[in-house]
Amino acid sequence: MWFFARDPVRDFPFELIPEPPEGGLPGPWALHRGRKKATGSPVSIFVYDVKPGAEEQTQVAKAAFKRFKTLRHPNILAYIDGLETEKCLHVVTEAVTPLGIYLKARVEAGGLKELEISWGLHQIVKALSFLVNDCSLIHNNVCMAAVFVDRAGEWKLGGLDYMYSAQGNGGGPPRKGIPELEQYDPPELADSSGRVVREKWSADMWRLGCLIWEVFNGPLPRAAALRNPGKIPKTLVPHYCELVGANPKVRPNPARFLQNCRAPGGFMSNRFVETNLFLEEIQIKEPAEKQKFFQELSKSLDAFPEDFCRHKVLPQLLTAFEFGNAGAVVLTPLFKVGKFLSAEEYQQKIIPVVVKMFSSTDRAMRIRLLQQMEQFIQYLDEPTVNTQIFPHVVHGFLDTNPAIREQTVKSMLLLAPKLNEANLNVELMKHFARLQAKDEQGPIRCNTTVCLGKIGSYLSASTRHRVLTSAFSRATRDPFAPSRVAGVLGFAATHNLYSMNDCAQKILPVLCGLTVDPEKSVRDQAFKAIRSFLSKLESVSEDPTQLEEVETNIPQRPTPEAPTPVPATPTTSGHWETQEEDKDTAEDSSTADRWDDEDWGSLEQEAESVLAQQDDWSTGGQVSRASQVSNSDHKSSKSPESDWSSWEAEGSWEQGWQEPSSQEPPPDGTRLASEYNWGGPESSDKGDPFATLSARPSTQPRPDSWGEDNWEGLETDSRQVKAELARKKREERRREMEAKRAERKVAKGPMKLGARKLD
Questions:
Q1: pTM of the shown model
Q2: CA 452 to chain centre
Q3: Residue 191: what are its φ and ψ, rounded to 5°?
Q4: Is the pLDDT of residue 611 over 90?
């Protein structure tokens, strides 16, 4: 019976990637890129092939293998696994790159910042301090070939081949026999008399000075070049000179060297080093310290290396949220770091956290998520939005805090393209109806109208027919003037969604009523809208063949694209225009784009601008109107779409989003929107003829005017008013008849039974 011996290399859980080894290692080891067989995660594998006649080198390699397994420190190359056979030695570590190769690549990419170098040297010196002060070990091989860089840009100390004990119980330092390494030995080693007084760290600190010189100036040609600091920063030069001094006795201990460089104004005294030191000790920091750190972190991330943000800051942010109860303060730096991730990484690392955050009851968390939604909305797929995010977001419509209600409305611009039919056409419309009809904040009612105009193309055809006309008509009756303007602009932004019958029978009557509005800004927008709708109707009247084309080209809901990393901006009404024929796209673009380019303005500034626009109707207003009429006559031969474009060019879309007032008391002298005398005579010094018109009622709409919070309520208002008037007339007629009968009885007296009334 034959027995086959198992191959330990084949059974090893790690494998080499078939490519040449990385260079930069003058010692006996060869560095290869590798991966774990089970997961494919990247690793680095140091390989030493046992050769006949190289027993001394083999012993050095085996000693290094042992050191790797026993030494554990954050700044020393991390050992993962190892394999020792008669033919080879394998040491598996975290995935790293030799410092020489890393620096060369960074120089080609634009250079390495001093911030990164300061932290990298800090790590190497800290590793030396650990070895000499805590372990009584001399590294004996500090040089460029012994330093490695991981994927986060962290510098790690390796090259443990020639390490020996500082206490002398393990013999003297091993012989290197490699000229490339021996050039870093300090000059006192050439003195065999033993009379030179030195510290146990003196040789390693000399080699540290050589490393610093090479980092800033390139490969060291000879020891005499150390006398010229070259490109070493001025803040580091004094401490560097201590390291390469001829007297080994005055070379500082690694711990003291760090202390000197960390002094105020020192080379290692900067925000990047401080951030790294805090992250290393974040687990033992107080909650208040963590809150302050995360609040200030986002300001510094722009100056930090991208790899550092992705691989060191991001894991700490995720850990702080999951286990540290950091709350909303991690959101800003989290999304800032998220910009460095690929779409796949974002889905794996950020989106699960975002989904969990939306279920939080913390108001600060919710409002920050809504404010920064544009940074992650493109990575959310439709099922996630409809089942895990939207059900939590809609609670914001009912929140008692106006700021949360406002941000919830704004967020619908981003969520609407990803909502399903039920959430968009039923649930969202129910909340919009409630806000527009009942919310006590005028700016929120205004913003709801604006948002509805922007998402109108995503509604189903039946919902558009049922909702848009009623909603914008409702807005034109709002006591808050910017809401009435928003209603007019809403009709304009969605003009291509209405049939000709709706334009003539439903929209124009509403707009005509606004031509005598107490506010001039409302009147101006109403006149422009009326001219545009009339031009459209006139064009169809002149050429009836256009009717079918216009009404069949009403755009349907666009199909949202797959969640790919695209610019996170609201879908503009320019999208709506592209559903029509290509020949109309250029003419409609101005109308669409200007609607979506509006900013979320200030309530106070908007209210002041509305009041300031009450100019003299009989002077400047008439001149402006006359010029507009002449322009409309001049353009009568053009298509109606050109009128929409010209209207946009006149700047009619400058009405911004409104900011709701907070629950804090307003400053002295500030009046609420409901307290403004929108039509009083004092609002104009020139005797506006519309100033005598009564202001619109400032009371809130009747709660039952919308029925069960649906959009048909507005259409039934006129019927209810007519029925009420008819009932009153019947009641008055009945009272008149009863009064006449009573007068006849008093005049003629009671009639006898059976008597006949004589005329």
A1: 0.66
A2: 23
A3: -85, 105
A4: no
